[in-house]
Structures are given as C-alpha cells and as structure tokens.
What we know:
- The chain is an all-alpha fold and about 300 residues long.
- About 75% of the residues lie in helices and about 0% in strands.
- The protein is built from 13 helices and no strands.
- The chain has helices at about 1-15, 20-50, 65-70, 70-105, 110-125, 130-140, 145-155, 165-190, 195-205, 210-235, 240-245, 255-260, 270-300.
Amino acid sequence: MVAPVTVAAGGADRASPGRGPGRSWLAWLVAVPFLAYVGTFLVYPTVLVLAGAFQDSTGAFTLANLADLTRGAYLRAFLRSVELSAITALLGAVLGALLSWAVAVGPAEGWLRRVVVAGAGVLAQFGGVPLAFAFLATVGFQGFVTRFLRDSFGLDLFAGGAWLFELPGLTLVYTFFQVPLMVIVFLPALDGLRPQWREAVDSLGGSAWTYWRRVGGPILLPAFLGAVLLLFANAFSAYATAAALVSQGSPIVPLQIRGFLTGEVLLGRENLGKALGLGMVVVVAVAMGLYALLQRRFARWQR
C-alpha cells in the first residue's frame, strides 16, 4: 500500500502547477517589465557612473578623478556625509527601537500598535521637498514654533546661527524619517521573540536582566545592527530633503554631485561628479552587504 501512494504522490508533485516549462517561460515574461525598469533606471546609470569615473573630459582613461576624492572639499564632503548618516542612523535606531519595544509589549491588536505601524508606514516615506517645507513652516525663521517661542518666552531658536540649514538641521530632519523606518524594520524582530524563551529563563531563576543579557539581547543584536546599517545607507543616499534645505554650498556628497551635473562653473568636470557617485555606490553597497549578512544570521533564530 505504501508504494502506490508514494508513486501517486510523486506523480501529483510532478503535475503540480508552476513546475512545467510553460510556467517558467510565463514567469520570465511577467518579469520582463520589472527587469526592463531595473535595467533602465538602475543598471544602465550605474554602468555610466562606473565608466565615467575613470575618464577625463576627452574620454581618455584616468585615475585623477578618484585621486581628487581623497583630498580637499570632496574628502570633507564624504566625511560629513558619513558623519551625518552615522549620527542619524544611531539616533533613529535607538529611538525607533524604544518605540518598537513599547508597541511589542502591548496588545497585538491594540490601538497603539495600529497607530504606530500606520504612522510609521506613512512617515518613513515622507521626505524630500514636503518634509523640508514642513520643518521650515514649523521651526524655520518664521515658523509657528519659532514665533511662538520668541513672542511668548523671548527664546530665539536661531540666536546661534542658521542651524536648520546646516548639518545640525539636516541631522534633525533626517532623524525624523529614520525613526519610523526603524520601527518598520525592527518591530518584526521584536515580535519574533518567543514567549517560551522568557518562560525558560524565569523557570531557571533568571531575572529580566539575565534574559536580555543572555537571550533577548544576543538574538536581537544582529537585527539591530542590520537596521542601523540600513538607516545609514538610507541617510547617505538621501538627496531631495538636503537639496531643499541647503540652497548655498554643498556640505554633503549628493549636493556635491548636483553641483557637477547642474552648475555652470564646473563645466567639463562632470566625470568628477561620477567619481563621487561611484564612491557613494561603494559605501552603500558595503553597508547593504553587511546588512544582508546580519539579516541571514538573525533568520537562523526565527526558524
């Protein structure tokens, strides 16, 4: 009786939908628009940046563009971009992790989870010019919070300078969209902690500190570090918000690239802008590669 059942099961498995050659061709056909989109707007520009980074204004091969990245204003722009991305990634990760923990310990269908998850999904995508305008209308020179504090308490937010349009302002604005992104990324990791692990620690006489130090912390650490790397890459590649806030100067790499591609003073130096773009691709690729490795390690605990 076993053999016929096995054969039938094998036959059913071979006849299951999605395994025939026709299904395979159909899957590739459906994927063609996506592959064309990726090739046009991701692969092709990346190839152009890679090729242009090693060419001079005449098209000849050169390493001068990459050498320029290691000195002067371009090196300072990279350092400022890394500093801005690291600070906002850490701030967003810590604040987002605390908010995620507050949601995770509450009821699974509670109003707090529904509000936070819905708000995080919206605010994580709220960037660019609308976000810059929101901060200008709130804490700009004539923002309603700025005027309220000045008129009611005599407190001038800009007594020390126009900080909103410099790196401190970018740090505040970037952190605004980093926190909800952290909630989206880290909340599933907290939900993945099994109650049996905490019960096992309690049954062995362990405290809450013991649980987080020996069990919860080590399990969540790869997910937390991976989220930090994701937030770093997110901030490092952000452009529109900084472009809307910083109209003078180019303190970070994306604004430096804008100057090479749109400015009239730097005509003939577009390939230096491509070299800056190549540097950004390398930094983001390294960050996302480490993120993928950490996510793979975290996934082992979720099996």
